[in-house]
Write a structure and sequence with these properties.
The complex is a heterodimer of chains A (441) and B (170). Chain A is of the alpha+beta class and 441 residues long. Among the domains of chain A are: 150 residues, no CATH class; 75 residues, Thrombin, subunit H (Beta Barrel), CATH 2.40.10. Chain A has twelve helices and 13 strands. Chain A has a six-stranded antiparallel beta barrel. A six-stranded antiparallel β-barrel of chain A has the order 6-7-8-11-10-9. Chain A is globular, with a radius of gyration of 27 Å. The termini of chain A are far apart. Chain B has 170 residues and is mostly helical. Chain B has a single domain, classed as Arp2/3 complex 21 kDa subunit ARPC3 (Orthogonal Bundle). Helix content of chain B is 69%, strand content 6%. Chain B has a two-stranded antiparallel ribbon. The N and C termini of chain B lie close together (6 Å). The chains are: A alpha+beta (441), B mainly alpha (170).
């Protein structure tokens, strides 16, 4: 026996080492929650790697910021002008959407719907991946010390990214939606069909469990359905790329993810969701026309008794009679539109690098716009404009990130008032600076 | 200078300093996790390092332990149960060191072929374990496997020449 073992010593050790690993693997597979049993050694490995990654990401971002903030400033004025125009357009859009959302909330409250609202998020930076072509997971620089826990959803401006698989003290492992072991409940926006989104071994996304006799068109938007109890309902997932017959009686729907999963830099972890009934408080609401009347440029009010004085705000809005110089106090709805209401920190430096927790004003007690404002924050953080479709199309805001309420609310029969024509004036009014959060009315 | 004799030919056995032994695999793991996955995901730097150390040391036992350590460390960074990469790299480490003890794998052509072969062996073992034990649904594609293997082999040949600088004769 000894001679045999001595002769095949190398092979014996190989078999022994393999056996031990197979045994360890079998124990992990058998136990449903292997994370607890292998947590300590995973922490060691992550702690050995992630400080280097964090340091390199810090250096990389520092160099990039230096370039962007100091050297790469050509064309900033022109871009600034364009962005201001875009802001004006989007504000008009927002007025209409807020009216739509308000109507949806009123209808939902009538039906006693419950809705999930993103209450709190943590901004995090992607510092690395699992380093394997056969799995799709990333590491972010926030962990349990910042309130991250397993199974928390991770999103970006574009849409959902994945969920937290393991939370370590200062980092977290995020399983992306295109990993083959991932599963997300989804909903097709137009056809309202529900299915399960899964990743393929090639890193693509497919929707399963949609019957083959259903009609699904390419280009249809895919949203999270909320059925997985992880992602809130209505977050964008992607668009249908291809529809093919799948296994058995189901379709295989390939989906193009709305978030660029291979170029993730900053993400938001949803650390708190709230469920609430939308409240219909029509008392404090201001009609869209009224809001517009306050915001459109008009002739400044002249002191009484001046000959030739033009009544201010004459065409500003029905029953308003107030121009730019005599505006009523801003109501809650006005604040929501103009940005004087609950403020979202607008400085990217305050948000992303430090990863401060961002309390979303989406949890306003009046049940106002349900679109998660954290996405707008991330918009600013990532310094990316909302996509052209989202900015231009009538349902652009919803396309960019539809609110849970808006996605399930019926289309309002009557659209809110269109932008009013400018008030008649004898001279061209001076250009009014765009209203920002810091500009008082 | 101790020299091992195999098949009548002189094959030198190398060793490495402790910083290189520990640092190079850690650096490979770090780079694998840090480099953008869009471009670099097909490369398996820990595998290349495993093959290099195993072939240079020409000792099956140290080869298999090197492979096991690197593979298990790679598993710890991933989302799946620990041991899939460990088993695959243990087999590769053992095979590469056994082969290195019998053949001259110092020239670029031999290194290219050996790396390609061990990449495919590694993928085969990984797929077998992942599908058989962990129940992952992995699709094997010969074209993709061979292309990735060739890419790894090309990168490996360059990497081996760099790592040759750290060799110390026993």
């Amino acid at each position: 026996m000894e001679s045999v073992l001595g002769r095949y010593r190398n092979l014996t050790i190989l078999v022994g080492v393999l056996f031990l690993q197979v045994l360890g693997l079998a124990v992990q597979v058998k136990r449903s929650n292997d994370a607890e049993h292998t947590r300590l050694i995973r922490i060691w490995a992550v702690d050995a790697i992630t400080p280097l990654e964090s340091g390199l990401v810090w250096v990389q971002n520092g160099g990039r910021n230096l370039w962007h903030n100091y050297f790469f400033l050509r064309g900033v004025r022109a871009e600034n002008r364009e962005l201001k125009e875009q802001i004006e357009q989007m504000r008009l859009e927002q007025v209409r959407l807020s009216e739509d959302a308000a109507q949806a909330h009123r209808l939902q409250s009538l039906l006693a719907f419950k809705e999930q609202i993103i209450a709190k998020t943590v901004a995090a930076q992607v510092i690395g991946s699992s380093g394997s072509d056969l799995s799709r997971s990333i590491y972010i620089d926030k962990g349990s010390d910042q309130g991250i826990k397993a199974d928390m959803p991770v999103i970006t401006v574009g849409g959902i990214v994945g969920k937290v698989l393991r939370a370590y003290p200062s980092t977290s492992l995020v399983l992306m939606v295109n990993d083959q072991s991932s599963g997300v409940g989804v909903l097709l926006e137009k056809s309202r069909l529900q299915g399960v989104l899964r990743g393929t071994p090639d890193g693509e996304l497919i929707v399963e469990r949609v019957m083959s006799d259903e009609q699904v068109a390419a280009g249809e938007t895919v949203l999270s359905s909320g059925g997985d109890q992880i992602f809130p309902k209505g977050l964008p997932v992607g668009t249908v790329k291809e529809v093919r017959p799948g296994k058995e009686m189901f379709l295989s729907i390939r989906v193009r993810p709305s978030a660029d999963l291979s170029r993730l830099e900053e993400v938001l972890v949803i650390t708190d969701k709230q469920e609430q009934s939308p409240a219909a408080d029509g008392g404090s609401r201001v009609r869209a026309a009224d809001v517009l009347a306050q915001r459109l440029p008009s002739v400044p009010e002249k002191p009484p008794g001046v000959p030739g004085a033009v009544p201010s705000g004459g065409g500003a809005g029905p029953g308003q009679g107030s121009g730019a110089g005599a505006k009523p106090p801003a109501t809650a709805a006005t604040q929501a539109v103009t940005g004087n209401g609950p403020k979202v920190t607008s400085s990217p430096s305050k948000l992303n690098p430090a990863g401060d927790q961002v309390a979303n004003p989406g949890t306003r007690p009046d049940g106002g716009i349900a679109r998660p404002p954290s996405i707008e924050v991330l918009n600013r953080v990532a310094q990316k404009p909302i996509s052209g479709d989202a900015a231009n199309s009538e349902s652009g805001g919803e396309a960019a990130l539809p609110s849970p309420s808006a996605s399930k609310a019926p289309t309002p029969a009557a659209k809110p008032a269109q932008p009013q024509p400018k008030p008649p004036s004898t001279q061209k009014p001076p250009p009014q600076p765009p209203v920002t959060e810091d500009t008082p009315h | 200078m101790p020299i091992t004799y195999t098949s009548g030919e002189q094959i030198e056995v190398y060793r490495f300093s402790i910083p290189v032994t520990v640092g190079v695999p850690l650096l490979a793991l770090f780079l694998q996790a840090f480099l953008p996955r869009r471009i670099f995901s097909i490369f398996d730097l820990p595998l290349l390092v495993t093959i290099f150390f195993a072939m240079a040391r020409r000792n099956p036992i140290s080869g298999l332990f090197t492979g096991a350590a690197i593979g298990l460390a790679q598993d710890m960074l991933g989302p799946y149960p620990i041991g899939i990469y460990g088993i695959a790299k243990t087999v590769v480490g053992y095979g590469a060191s056994s082969l290195g003890a019998k053949l001259d794998v110092e020239n670029a052509g031999a290194r290219l072929l050996v790396t390609l072969g061990f990449y495919l062996l590694h993928q085969a073992v990984y797929f077998t374990v992942a599908r058989g034990m962990v129940n992952l649904t992995l699709n094997w594609s010969w074209s993709r496997g061979i292309l990735a293997g060739l890419a790894n082999a090309v990168v490996g040949v360059g990497l081996y020449f760099v790592l040759d600088k750290f060799k110390q004769r026993t």
